[in-house]
Specification:
- This protein has 364 residues and is mainly α.
- It folds into three domains: 118 residues, no CATH class; 92 residues; 89 residues, no CATH class.
- The protein is built from 16 helices and no strands.
- It is elongated, with a radius of gyration of 33 Å.
- It starts with a helix and ends with a helix.
């Protein structure tokens, strides 16, 4: 969109902006609160409605208008909000900055055309002089720079993915990063990052770059961790250690990402059909020792409930063999807190005491 922006900036300079009844723009704290409220909405439509309400009740700077545009999910919504915000923009001479929030040339041109022909009722006919933007809005005038560290490439990546792709292209990323950089505080940059990764598929390098725009490293860690699940090349997480100066945060990051990528252990359970198969196998053996040896093999890959263990012990005639079977199957029992009830299957008190002592010692 660079050629378009140059054209729009030139045209804006040649076309005088009419004054509007907007003497005082929102302050930093008030805008941040309103910005967060827009970002917190659960659907794109609700975000747009909240943004329109913001523009209808408040005077905004061009930088603030652009920042809200970045939160919206599509150019049609940005156009609608831009039109609404134009009538309450404090520094219209800087409105060209808003066009950079658009991904499409046609939508940016439509907003520009609107600003030139909007029939706004004016309270005075004199052209608006160039207005100095408040200090709180000058953050966007600083040059955006990313740290000189090693960024991984997502090209030809075949590992675990948080988003399938396509990964946002560099021009689209530059636009989003510019909007994030233009946020006035670390907190609003955090919110903008979370909104951005919900809209587009980021690579690990992209996420590292936008998170580097957050000055406070604890907040940077939170932004990185909360957006991580939406990254395309998840297994490149190790490179993000370079974003932190402290060994503690580096270690915390590695542990967080590694834990996230480690799948939970599969649920270990035995179905009724599996249990019937086990019982048939036990019934095919003639001697208690053979049955116990078979259980030693079965327990490696099976996890029985207390009720299932009770059923299995009925395949043994003698209490001592039943107790031996109970001890074999205790370690991987899915409800060990109920294991004491198996004592009812034993006729001798000393064997029940033996089982209870075994349970108290954690199966030792």
């Amino acid at each position: 969109m660079k050629p378009l922006l140059i054209l729009l900036i030139t045209l804006s300079a040649l076309t005088p902006s009419s004054a509007q009844d907007c003497p005082n723009p929102m302050g930093n704290i008030a805008f941040q609160s309103a910005f967060n409220l827009v970002a917190a909405q659960s659907t794109p439509q609700k975000k747009l409605e909240q943004a329109l309400a913001l523009a209808g009740k408040n005077c905004l700077t061009s930088s603030q208008v652009k920042n809200v545009c970045v939160l919206l999910s599509d150019d049609a919504s940005r156009l609608e909000f831009g039109k609404a915000a134009w009538n309450s923009t404090f520094d219209r001479v800087n409105f060209f900055d808003v066009y950079d929030a658009f991904g499409s040339l046609s939508f940016a041109l439509r907003l520009y055309d609107y600003t030139q022909h909007a029939g706004v009722q004016e309270r005075r006919a004199t052209p608006t002089p160039v207005v100095a933007v408040p200090e709180s809005s000058k953050e966007s005038l600083k040059v955006m720079k990313f740290p000189a560290i090693l960024y991984p490439t997502h090209l030809k990546y075949t590992g675990k993915k948080g988003c399938d792709g396509p990964v946002i292209d560099e021009s689209g990323f530059a636009m989003m990063a510019s909007g994030i950089f233009g946020q006035p505080t670390d907190e609003t940059r955090y919110v903008a990052i979370q909104a951005a990764v919900q809209q587009r598929c980021f690579s690990m390098a992209h996420l590292m770059k936008v998170c580097s725009l957050i000055g406070d490293e604890s907040m940077r860690f939170k932004a990185l961790a909360d957006a991580f699940s939406r990254v395309h090349d998840l297994e490149h997480h190790g490179a993000a250690k370079a974003l932190f100066s402290s060994a503690a945060l580096q270690n915390d990051w590695v542990q967080f990402a590694t834990t996230y990528l480690t799948p939970p252990p599969p649920v270990c359970q035995v179905t009724d059909e599996d249990l019937k198969t086990v019982l048939r196998s036990l019934q095919s053996k003639n001697f208690p020792d053979e049955k116990l040896n078979l259980l030693k093999t079965i327990r490696v890959s099976k996890c029985f409930s207390t009720g299932q263990v009770r059923t299995i012990t009925k395949e043994f005639s003698f209490d001592q063999n039943k107790l031996d079977a109970m001890k074999l199957l205790f370690e991987k029992c899915t409800d060990q807190s109920n294991y004491y009830t198996l004592g009812d299957e034993l006729n001798f008190v000393y064997l029940r005491d033996d089982l209870n002592e075994f349970i108290r010692k954690g199966g030792k």
